TrEMBL record, chains A, B, C:
This is Rh family, C glycoprotein a. Gene3D superfamilies: Ammonium transporter AmtB like domains (1.10.3430.10). Belongs to the ammonium transporter (TC 2.A.49) family. Rh subfamily. Homotrimer. One of its GO terms (biological process) is ammonium homeostasis.
């Protein structure tokens, strides 16, 4: 019945074992604690005249880190449980690739951003693990475009290549071009979305209609997905502020994001209702487009965009994103299961543009001299850069993100077309049965107690 | 078949758009960053001899803010998913009105509490957004009384009026009467509950029995509701401590609330079991009455009520609230879907009384001179106020909350009776079908793969 | 039909009331606020020359406390919803015994660790409530072994005895032996697991097969359980760092745990896939074994185990734990519903061994002199202890935990065999119907609206 063979019994364990062992070896060679997480910190503190333990970077960033962590695992994970029979795959494979990706990201980002020239080692602390979670987000966004159509081995390969692509792209944007992108409208969302969309385009399945019966939500799976939506929505202020500047930088980034998101919700409900018979709302829109404001504030969150500026950004993105779900089909060839084009690609690009404009129009009268220097880090070799120039570089950053997403996605897409990865056949997509032991439904339990040996066989060893 | 026409295709989008645009304009005119979230903060810090970024208000309150945010969106939202076929409406409309309400609250509360006399503008920071979430909570409590019986447009109207009512009431209680109410037993719970109950009384549906078949829970919807219950329960210590005084104030408020909540759980289980045949527990009680201790600690949380005092408050509230679910029907005319009378009204009033007594009996021997002045803010023109007087004012605060809830609810209730809001007919309440595109159940998928074009039609544009 | 009588209508309310009243009396006699949560703090602060409110212990630990709190109530609670018809009991009884246990733990741990010699009272603050949550975790782990087979009254008894056993064991391990165990591999996991397994062994039900039809998961209950898994997984870094040393201690504990958990995920997926036909993954493994890395890092989390050391620990534990679910049946007599032997017992013991080795091999060259003294608290009468000796004491600590778990479990097991506790009969286990009012399924609602008075009878008083 199946044209393809989705048996991953050898390939998945091999991939997991080999890559995890590689991580251990590479960590052994390269990764150590940084100054603030090393037991020598008490000496270091004295040398630097730091008077209190509360000055440890941990206390500035740990609460935000945990919020970001929840977004990665529960937010993205549960957002992808909306399909009626792919909830295990949605939350489970998200879990797998994020757990691999964050290790790989610590290495790749470390080589580019955190290498200690004194000993050639990567020194990690709280900021590195936040950045690793960010890096993983790029790959999880890409997964959204492919949900239900690929094997876990393909997802691991997507992550294996996605992380270094992200790290290089991020290095060029943030360090070479000296672009600001605190919440990653470009670096995370634009890159991740185009990476996934390009792969989806290359993995085009002309006969995907054969799985149409499962490519939809169920009542309870829609409620599960709302868990993902809400944790993403609520914690997005932490996402955009997690690595911005201490003090007013983090403070402002949180407030701006909070406002943009609120605004997105109203325009999403408006367009969703306007578009349907009798004004009925569509869960697809509510689960996704309400988040567009957070994506679009990724670049400008720490800027003085003003509270009403944030509202305007959210207003526009809620509209654009919902319209995306309603009408846009960029190409029939891109079978974008979660609609990442509408949630991440368009708002990400918009966010980059908003960021470029906001940067270009920044002034000392608004920021103060010190505030302008701090916010845009016009220090050292960038001391002479003007806001206008910065705006130009911000726009250049967007092009880099797009290029890495599309070119990287094309290369990885062709790799994933090789017939060795155990992906499901066209009539077997969106179905947990392919890669999971699925219990029979509780609904099928007869109310009169009756012995059913088959159903519980797999749990026998639990007792 | 339907006597009423619940079509909101025009009204809902118009309301969302117009009000969101109004928010943008009003924010443009009135709202700016406060000192600690503005880019001038580094200058400000130097002027005030603040030595460390960690002194930014953000670090004192942001973790509590995020907990409160989770309570508003996941806590209240999922608590209202308990109905078997109204989970979309429970969590979805909660999302909509909270997102609108928090913007509107920033303005209304800002005009009353945060107006900068120098330039006539509202300066917002972390404390304002916590207060906006609090303000929204009042309207969400009111929604609980109306769950399943009103249209989203009516909920928006309820919020439009509820927020200013709250802001004025709060201003009178906290600023004119100089009452302490850190966690809002009066300001939030009493007001919100009576506001909702009065509206429900006015919107009385004599034939609501026609929707009886849907006015109950399902097995899975009860488990979803437990997500709401638990996030409310766990984060209530953050709710009651979020805006209390730095240092021992926040610390004590968290501990007192933690204890009162634990105590509520035991008496709730006790009464629930005692009241049923064979001692069977009722999920309605577990989902709601376990939270009563948190409501009742809202006023006294930051006081020196002592750990055992907190346990006693929780003990009583668990009993009272569960009894409420079992026996009290204040009036057949009040069709209180979620039982907000039992969860918010009674414990809120009790909390106000507990607060008044605790305040009246406060003494320098218990608080220390400095502690007493700080806790009750006996400074400036209140420097001469005694604890006994404070107790009297606390009691007066309760009356203000009740008056605003009941009178405000009456006015808004009559507005909501106008036949233009698209509310459901009596035989169509508690049903997501009215305002949502509801997917067919996953259970109806035949295990033998069969083409079903109808079911997935609405998702076609995703591919 | 039932051999036993699971009616708890008298016993459960009596237990809840009497014990809660006892708590109130004991708190009244013994429990007061500590220096940092008392209103005298502002004076205390001045005396000690503390310059800022941010130095209050609250700000060092409150975010971690809330994460731990989520693990206890949502993490453990939802992890136990996996059974198809015991979700109410899983999350509900977890709620009950945790709420009782944390009060009892504040007293028991207080008498051993926090008694103020000046006035014979227990002074509580944020660290005490974190420790109370930890203490409760021991009993919740034990519950996991008994899930579905005991009555709520038995669980209350299990907790009544479990908390003092924990407190004494903890006192011996941490204070008498001066062992380090920040995240409780020994104190919490080893003790809790063997306590529960021994009780389960004594409560052996030879005819448990009669409930086999319900001893398995359902599709949605498996997704609910993933909520528990993920919140445990994400917040485990907070669990292991919540009470470790300020500054680098907390920082390092969080990073080590983060890495170990990531590594566990990959080996869990690998073994799960390797063991099944066509490589299909089993949700039982993903829900549980992915957490083993966190358990095993409980002792060594704050040590300089190095990032790759953490990865190795997680690597091994993912394998061992998954194998446990696949093949190990320690004894047919131990009917371990949740597999706590695989998730807590084995990784806990391994964690203790890892901790002992890491401690024994600690050196000044790695930690610095000051770092070594701080990390192992080689101060006062322990100033002369060497790392090697410390390693020996760590191993001794493991023996204490095992002894308390097994002996305590045996005693409590025999108490729980008394025929007075209302436990379910063998053919009635794993069934919420026994102790809960269970709503009929929403699926049974006829799509054509039809009056169904029976179903909603219990909700009538809500209106």
């Amino acid at each position: 019945m199946l044209a393809k063979n989705p048996d991953v019994r050898i390939s998945l364990p091999v991939v997991c074992f080999v890559w995890q062992i590689a991580m251990i070896i590479l960590f052994g060679v390269f990764v150590r604690y940084d100054e603030e997480s090393d037991a020598h910190w008490s000496e270091h503190k004295r040398e630097k005249n730091i008077t209190s333990d509360i000055e440890n970077e941990f206390y500035y960033r740990y609460p935000s880190f945990q919020d970001v962590h929840v977004m990665i695992f529960v937010g993205f994970g549960f957002l992808m449980t909306f399909l009626k029979r792919y909830s295990f795959g949605g939350v489970g494979f998200n879990f797998l690739i994020a757990a691999f990706g964050l290790q790989w990201a610590l290495l790749m980002q470390g080589w580019f951003h955190a290498l200690d020239p004194a000993d050639g080692q990567i020194k990690i602390g709280i900021e590195n693990i936040i950045n690793a979670d960010f890096c993983v987000a790029g790959c999880l966004i890409a997964y959204g475009a492919l949900l239900g159509k690929v094997s876990p081995v393909q997802l691991m390969v997507l992550t294996l290549f996605g992380i270094p692509l992200f790290a290089v792209e991020e290095y060029i944007i943030l360090h070479v071009l000296h672009v600001r992108d605190a919440g990653g409208s470009m670096v995370i969302h634009t890159f991740g979305a185009y990476y996934g969309l390009t792969i989806s385009w290359i993995l085009y399945r002309p006969k995907l209609d054969q799985s149409k019966r499962l490519n939809g939500s169920g009542y309870h799976s829609d409620v599960f997905a709302m868990i993902g939506t809400l944790f993403l929505w609520m914690f997005w202020p932490s996402f955009n502020s997690a690595i911005s500047d201490h003090g007013d930088g983090q403070h402002r980034a949180a407030i701006n994001t909070y406002l943009a998101l609120a605004s997105s919700v109203l325009t999403t409900f408006a367009i969703s209702s306007l578009s349907a018979k009798r004004g009925k709302l569509d869960m697809v829109h509510i689960q996704n487009a309400t988040l567009a404001g957070g994506v679009a504030m990724g670049t400008a969150a720490e800027f003085m965009i003003t509270p009403y500026g944030s509202l305007i950004v959210g207003f526009c993105c809620g509209i654009i994103s919902t319209f995306g779900y309603l009408v846009i089909t960029v190409s029939r060839r891109i079978q974008d299961t979660c609609g990442v084009h509408n949630l991440h690609a368009m708002p990400g690009v918009l966010g980059a543009v908003v960021g470029a404009i906001t940067a270009a129009t920044a002034s000392e009268s608004v920021y103060g001299h010190e505030g302008l220097v701090n916010t845009f880090d016009f220090k050292g070799k960038y001391a002479e850069r003007t806001p206008a120039t910065q705006g130009g570089f911000q726009a250049a950053g967007l092009c880099v993100a797009l290029a890495f997403g599309i070119v990287g996605g094309a290369i990885v897409g062709f790799i994933l077309r090789l017939p060795v990865w155990g992906d499901p056949s066209d009539d077997n997509c969106f179905d947990d049965e392919v890669y999971w032991e699925v219990p029979e439904d509780e609904e099928s339990i007869p109310p009169i107690l009756e012995y059913n040996s088959h159903m519980v066989g797999k749990y026998a060893d639990r007792m």
